[in-house]
User: Which sequence fits this backbone?
């Protein structure tokens, strides 16, 4: 039995709530669009640009402090 066949069999055994959860996870994991929402997949280059400000996550405290002082 192939992986795809096994996956089909597993999905058939899921209840509707579990199937909806699995569908959401699979779409998010593999960047698949939701046809019910008429969504298009994002291009592969999304997120590849640099803001020029370094790693904002690492500097969040500094950025928030500076914004607070500017007010």
Assistant:
């Amino acid at each position: 039995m192939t992986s795809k066949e096994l996956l089909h069999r597993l999905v058939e055994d899921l209840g509707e709530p579990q199937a909806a959860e699995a569908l959401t996870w699979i779409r998010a994991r593999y960047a698949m669009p939701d046809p019910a929402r008429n969504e298009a997949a994002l291009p592969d280059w999304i997120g590849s640009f640099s803001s020029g400000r370094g790693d904002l996550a690492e500097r969040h405290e500094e950025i928030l402090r500076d914004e607070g002082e500017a007010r």
The chain has a mean pLDDT of 80. Residues 1-40 form one domain.
